[in-house]
Amino acid sequence: MLRRAGSSPAMPPGAHVGPKQESSYREAAGLIKGACRTTAFTGAGISVESGIPPFRGPDGLWSRYDPQVLDIGFFHSYPGRAWMAIREIFYSSFLAAKPNAAHYALAAMEAAGRLHGVITQNIDNLHYQAGSRMIWEFHGNSRTLICLGCSKAYPVAGVDLGELPPTCRLCGGILKPDFVFFGEPIPEPAGTKAFLAAQMSDVLLLIGTTGEVMPAAMIPQAAKERGACIIEINTQESQYTRQITDVFLKAKATVAMVRLLELLGIQLPV
Ligand SMILES: [Zn+2]
Question: Measured in angstroms, how far is the CA atom of residue 178 from the centroid of ligand 1?
Answer without folding.
Answer: 14
